[in-house]
Write a structure and sequence with these properties.
Elements: H1 11-15, H2 28-36, E1 41-46, H3 51-61, H4 64-73, E2 75-80, H5 85-99, E3 107-111, E4 117-121, H6 138-150, H7 154-166, H8 183-194, H9 211-224, H10 227-240, E5 256-257, E6 265-266, E7 269-270, H11 271-288, H12 291-307, E8 309-310, E9 313-314, E10 317-318, E11 321-322, E12 325-326, H13 334-343, H14 348-357, H15 383-394, E13 402-403, E14 405-407, H16 408-422, H17 426-443, E15 444-445, E16 448-454, E17 461-462, H18 465-482, H19 485-502, E18 503-504, E19 507-511, E20 517-518, H20 529-543, H21 547-558, H22 560-565, H23 571-582, E21 585-589, H24 591-596, H25 598-602, E22 609-613, E23 619-622, E24 627-631, H26 637-644
Parallel strand pairs: 1-2, 21-22
Antiparallel strand pairs: 1-3, 3-4, 5-6, 7-10, 8-9, 10-13, 11-12, 14-16, 15-16, 16-17, 18-19, 19-20, 21-23, 23-24
Helix pairs in contact: 4-6, 9-10, 9-11, 9-23, 11-12, 11-16, 12-16, 13-15, 16-17, 16-18, 17-18, 18-19, 18-20, 19-20, 20-21, 20-23
Length: 646
């Protein structure tokens, strides 16, 4: 018999509708029941493609004995962190406060009957057994908590009150630091400390792409000809696409690597990762002129278009787990690869070479199976055809579960990436425009922007700061590429709405209402929402009205103390600080002229260039307050910009 989650749209909540646990969605009814019956609350937060969420479900939430106990003694609530990032952000702060380290998913929160949290964990095994020697079992902890709440243990309630008081949003920083380009020098020192020299990246394992750090290193290379910054970027980008984290067969990137070599990924594919990496590899191509980066960017965009979209809207994620276990869709046995090559008339010596170069062996490189990997600098002629053969093997398998939830912020990220790629190949501009128009139609209804919705349903959760921010910068890109002023006006409207609802004298809130949560400046799973808002405000300040630059400056000033000392945690904000100090360069010309010379303009090395369609028949290069020179020759734009930079 299904529980209350049966009536929810969220794919993650639907995954748990048949658990024997009497789950509630996040609702007043659950909290009233807990208080009326004096029962502790258990809140479980996760998302549909989360591997350890699935593990905990199988081990714990499908256990009949566990269900019988918690249904009697607890009120249990399930939350989709992608649907309600405000709730997730609040409880991640609870976890960090209680455990002095960052949390993760699944998030397991225990609260008093008044919904005041006092204990926070992540994945919990069924029992405190040897395999999880440092991890308390769910069975043991629920018995302890149920007993203490029933006895009205004073210490638990006192601790909960203290935790709630600590969760109040922090006050204004005690001092500001003068914004200076020297911040980037401190950043480079901190990057050097964190850089992993053997395989690139900024950790050992697990290993995440850290796109914001790489993006900012590209800007530093372009601004200061910092060869060390360029080397770190190119070595990391080269290492990430050898196969594993990057899917050589279907294209696209997995969430992260479980090892230092970028070989064994966590196989879920998230829209935001692929959006950010598509844009990063496009920028790397434009900056470093390496064709393989453009190839990866296009393959990543094509993966999203082929596997992760419907009616021009993009899904949230595909699952880490396949039908027969984690990664089985993505991996191969030696026998099936060898057989497929024989069927396709490859000779024995060719097959031996292919297997060797693709790291396919009898024992495999992942749990007896093979992740396709290619480490040579030059790909052989057979490579593309062999990838086609491997795709044909995959096509006979069931694709991992896809969460068909549409999220405004994540869709905006991939749309912006497609517009960036469209500067090189106009096909992607057309796709980006179609997607943006569909997103606005689906998520901007009667003047209200919404956060998420299951595809083809009506959205209910209103937008958070991240939705306004990422939509805003995507709309700026759309305006630059299409010349449609409605996109620019809508970007301004979203910025005004965000300023009215979430801004307070340099400080930004992620959400207001049920949970008031402060927006972070650190770049985590994706860039800081505050930094993206600065990006939007600077663009509007250059294209429409200078007052938006004032809001950007106040935001930078508010965060300057932390940024100056620990820029490694906020690379996107550092990038926007350099942009504010150096200034944008705006290229104005007729739309047809801009589009005809799009590739030349895209290759301009200065990182803070905007395009503005105008009535000019030639190219006019301007700053925020003045114009520098005009030319009929697009090839002279680079020189004009370089001469204008102080």
């Amino acid at each position: 018999m299904a529980n209350r989650l049966e009536y929810e749209d969220s794919p993650y909540l639907q995954q748990h509708k048949n658990n024997p646990i009497d789950w509630y969605p996040w609702c007043d009814e659950a909290f009233k029941k807990a208080e009326d019956e004096h029962k502790p609350i258990f809140i479980s937060i996760g998302y549909s493609s989360c591997h350890w969420c699935h593990v905990m479900e199988k081990e714990v939430f499908e256990n009949e004995d566990v269900a019988k106990f918690v249904n009697k003694h607890f009120v249990c609530i399930k939350v989709d962190r992608e649907e309600r990032p405000d709730i997730d952000k609040h409880y991640q702060e609870v976890y960090q406060l209680l455990n002095r380290r960052a949390g993760g998913w699944p998030t397991s929160i225990f609260a008093t009957p008044q919904n005041k949290p006092f204990f926070a964990g992540t994945y919990m095994p069924l029992h405190n057994k040897e395999a999880h020697v440092n991890m308390m079992g769910f069975t043991e902890i629920t018995k302890i908590i149920a007993e203490k709440i029933e006895q009205k243990d004073e210490q638990i309630f006192k601790n909960a009150d203290e935790i709630v008081s600590f969760l109040r949003p922090a006050a204004h920083p005690t001092e500001a630091t003068k914004l200076t380009e020297d911040f980037h020098k401190n950043f480079m020192v901190q990057v050097e400390r964190n850089y992993e020299k053997a395989y690139g990246g900024f950790s050992t394992s697990p290993k995440f792409p850290h796109t914001s750090t790489l993006d900012t290193l590209l800007s530093i290379y372009a601004l200061y000809d910092d060869q060390e910054a360029k080397k770190k970027v190119t070595f990391t980008l080269d290492s990430m696409i050898k196969g594993g984290l990057y899917d050589l067969v279907d294209g696209g990137f997995c969430r992260y690597s479980t090892d230092e070599k970028w070989l064994v990924p966590h196989f879920e594919k998230m829209t935001y990762d692929n959006a950010l990496l598509c844009e990063l590899y496009t920028k790397a191509y434009l900056t470093c002129k390496d064709e393989k980066y453009l190839h990866v960017a296009k393959k990543t965009a094509d993966f999203m278009l082929n596997f992760m979209q419907e009616d021009d809207l993009f899904y949230s994620a595909s699952d880490a787990d396949s039908q027969d276990g984690e990664g089985t869709y993505f991996t191969f046995t030696k026998e099936e690869v060898e057989t497929a090559l024989i069927i396709n008339a490859y000779e024995d010596d060719e097959i031996a070479q292919i297997l060797r170069l693709l790291h396919v062996s009898e024992n495999g490189n992942f749990e007896g199976r093979n992740i396709i990997r290619f480490e040579e600098s030059t790909k052989p002629q057979w490579c593309e055809n062999v990838m086609h053969i491997l795709r044909s093997i995959r096509e006979k398998r069931e694709y991992p579960f896809i969460d068909k939830k549409v999220q405004t912020s994540w869709n905006a990220m991939i749309i912006k990436a497609l517009f960036t790629l469209g500067q090189i190949d106009s096909r992607y501009t057309a796709m980006a425009k179609k997607s943006l128009d569909s997103l606005l139609k689906s998520m901007f209804i009667n003047g209200t922007l919404y956060h998420s919705v299951l595809i083809h349903k009506t959205p209910k959760v209103k937008a958070f700061l991240e939705d306004y921010a990422f939509m805003g910068v995507a709309l700026i890109s759309a305006y630059e590429q299409t010349g449609d002023e409605l996109y620019l006006i809508t970007a301004q409207r979203f910025a005004n709405n965000a300023l009215e609802e979430f801004y307070d004298n340099g400080r930004w809130f992620f959400s207001k209402g049920e949970f008031t949560t402060q927006a972070e400046i650190s770049d985590n799973t994706y860039p800081s929402t505050v930094s993206v808002m600065i990006d939007l405000l600077l663009s509007l300040g250059a294209l429409i009205e200078e007052k938006y630059r004032t809001f950007a400056f106040k935001t930078l000033e508010y965060n300057s103390y932390d940024l100056g000392r620990k820029p490694i945690y906020a690379p996107y904000m550092l990038d926007m600080t350099l942009r504010y100090l150096k200034g944008e360069r705006i290229i104005k010309s007729e739309l047809g002229n801009l589009n005809a010379h799009a590739q030349i303009i895209a290759h301009v090395s200065y990182p803070y260039v905007l395009k503005q369609p105008s009535s000019n028949s030639d190219f006019l290069v301007c700053g925020t307050n003045s114009c520098f020179a005009n030319t009929e020759d697009a090839n002279q734009i680079e020189e004009i910009i370089n001469n204008s930079i102080i």
